[in-house]
Amino acid sequence: MSIAVLLESALLSCQPAEKCTLSIEAQQMCAQTPANALQRDECAVIKDFRFAGHPVKPELVSPDKVISRKFTTAEGYAALLHAVCHIEFNAINLALDAAYRFRLLPEEFTRDWVRIAAEEAHHFQLMRQRLQTLGYDYGDFSAHNHLWDMAYKTAFDPLLRMALVPRVLEARGLDVTPGMRAKIAQKGDDATCAVLDIIYHDEVGHVQVGNYWYQYLCRLRGLEPLALFRRLLSRYDLFIFRGYVNIDAREQAGFSRFELEMLENFEQNRQSDIHNWRLALQN
Ligand SMILES: [Fe+2]
Question: Residue 173: inside a domain, yes or no?
Fold first, then answer.
């Protein structure tokens, strides 16, 4: 079986356990195949689909309809762990899709994203176990599909995908995780903290891979990375910083201090522009 066929099966699988097993098999296939010998079926037709394989539950709803994730109630805490589980489930599909779809890029790109898919599968399995110890399971709460929606919108261009998924959406996880971990530690749930530590460590590496290939594709196309990134943030109406910014983790993940300062400045200007437009519209 080629890696391309295996990735397609994993991506379209609707069973979480099967998707994890197939992702780990794909990583093993990569490990056992010598460099430049992966069968990526470069000439095959790549399927276009609105949704990757996912189970019937969790029910997908708009972000404002998701149950609130409170630390103070047992159900709210389970909903929080479920939300992390769902992010990890989507992250498996995102990584599989990058490896499956953008197969004309260097083989290292495929290997990087297959490895990430296997790591995301591991994260999902670990967090699902934590949820099960609370008496719940993946699918017990509703969830939103924001992460996969961005994958769908960027399916036609790997540069766009690298810019907006790892560098924007996944990088936000680096900002959010330390605060969440601190609250969970206060609750005394050390086992969940240990899972979050694994996730956090690996996610720095995932954002780093996204940064590497974003820079690579910009160089290939003769584009200036920072100027292009600012244009894309405006065009897609995205903000990269929300509240606390984890400068250290972002630097480890390949953002330079200069780039982070420029982006912070750019976002402040955009926010004041938006504020001024609203005021002008009201008058
Ligand atoms: Fe993850």
Answer: yes
- Written as six digits, the tokens of 244 are 């606390």
Q: How far is the CA of 113 from the centre of ligand 1 (A)?
A: 12
- Rounded distance from Cα 179 to ligand 1 centre (Å): 17
pLDDT cut 70: percent of the chain above it: 100
What is d(CA 279, CA 27) in angstroms, rounded to the nearest whole number? 53
Question: What CATH number does the domain containing 173 carry?
Answer: 1.20.1260.10
| Residue 89 alpha carbon to ligand 1 centre in Å | 8
pLDDT at 272: 75
The count of domains in the chain is 1
Mean per-residue pLDDT, 148-169: 95
State the distance from the centre of ligand 1 to the C-alpha of 95, rounded, in angstroms: 10
Q: How many whole angstroms from 169 Cα to the centroid of ligand 1?
A: 12
Q: Considering the domain boundaries, does residue 30 fall inside one?
A: yes
Position 248 in a domain: no
> Each residue of 73-96: pLDDT tens digit?
999 999 999 999 999 999 999 999
Structure confidence at residue 280 (pLDDT): 77
Where does residue 269 rank: exposed (0-12), middle (13-18), buried (19+ CB within 10 A)?
Answer: exposed
Helices then strands, counting H and E runs in the chain, come out as 11, 0
